[in-house]
Design brief:
By secondary structure, this protein is of the alpha/beta class. It has helices spanning about 5-15, 30-40, 50-60, 75-80, 90-105, 130-135, 140, 160-180, 200-205, 215-220; strands spanning about 20-25, 45, 65, 85-90, 110-115, 145-155, 190-195, 210-215. The structure holds pyridoxal-5'-phosphate.
Length: about 220
């Protein structure tokens, strides 16, 4: 099947309309992204700031770009003028830099807080108590140019679907805790970004509002 057939199938048969699909185009060439764009789909995700910035400059400007990977503070500047949503905010320091870049660019930058839900050591993210501490701090309340829309997480890379499901449930629990404690009156705090090619069906069953799918659309990397 072609790339556009892949995405068509996913959009019509796999992902409900209420769930946003981010087509993860990392490592893939401009021509393949344009194939999806020409088909009519305009929401893409990348995991490296410089690659994202380069693709932004070469592609149509009505694409909604998502930064889904780990972001270093010194790379925020490459994407701050245009990025729609930064999924991987995993420290207060990073959030402060994003806020500063938002101010410089005269815009408010949408963010998700990433939580560490996997058993693997290598995956980034807050735990619930760290996030609470941040959200209760005065320094946090001073940030004017960021907008937190929800949470993001990555499950363990495993065949064990029970473990994956339990990790997604944990992220939903964290979302609900934060929602009721800090964001109950903030109607746009509503996003749960979880699920990739291998586990997005479980993620949708558990309440994902955003799924990030790469290889099922573009093929293996
Ligand atoms: C690469 C990547 C994805 C997509 O992975 P696939 O398995 O190709 O669907 C999703 N989320 C993040 C954070 C990624 O880095």
């Amino acid at each position: 099947m072609s790339i556009s057939e892949n995405i068509k199938k996913i959009l019509t048969q796999e992902v409900p309309e209420s769930v946003k699909l981010v087509a993860v185009s990392k490592t893939k060439p401009i021509e393949q992204i344009l194939e999806v764009y020409t088909f009519g789909y305009k929401i893409f995700g990348e995991n490296r700031a410089q690659e994202l910035s380069e693709k932004y400059s070469k592609l149509p400007k009505d694409i909604e770009w998502h930064m889904i990977g780990h972001l270093q503070t010194n790379k925020v500047k490459y994407i701050s003028p245009f990025v729609y949503l930064i999924h991987g905010v995993d420290s207060f320091k990073l959030l402060q830099v994003i806020d500063k870049e938002g101010t410089k660019n005269n815009r408010i930058i949408n963010c998700l807080l990433q939580f560490h839900i996997a058993t693997e050591e290598t995956k980034f993210g807050f735990d619930l108590s760290e996030a609470k501490q941040m959200l209760e701090s005065n320094e946090f309340s001073n940030l004017q140019n960021i907008n937190i829309l929800g949470v993001m997480g990555m499950a363990t890379f495993t065949e064990n679907t029970q473990l994956v499901r339990a990790e997604f449930k944990e992220l939903v629990y964290i979302f609900n805790q934060l929602k009721s404690k800090y964001f109950s009156t903030k109607s746009d705090f509503k996003e749960i970004s979880m699920g990739m090619s291998g586990d997005y069906k479980i993620a949708i069953e558990e309440g994902a509002t955003i799924v990030r799918i790469g290889s099922l659309i573009f093929g293996e990397r």
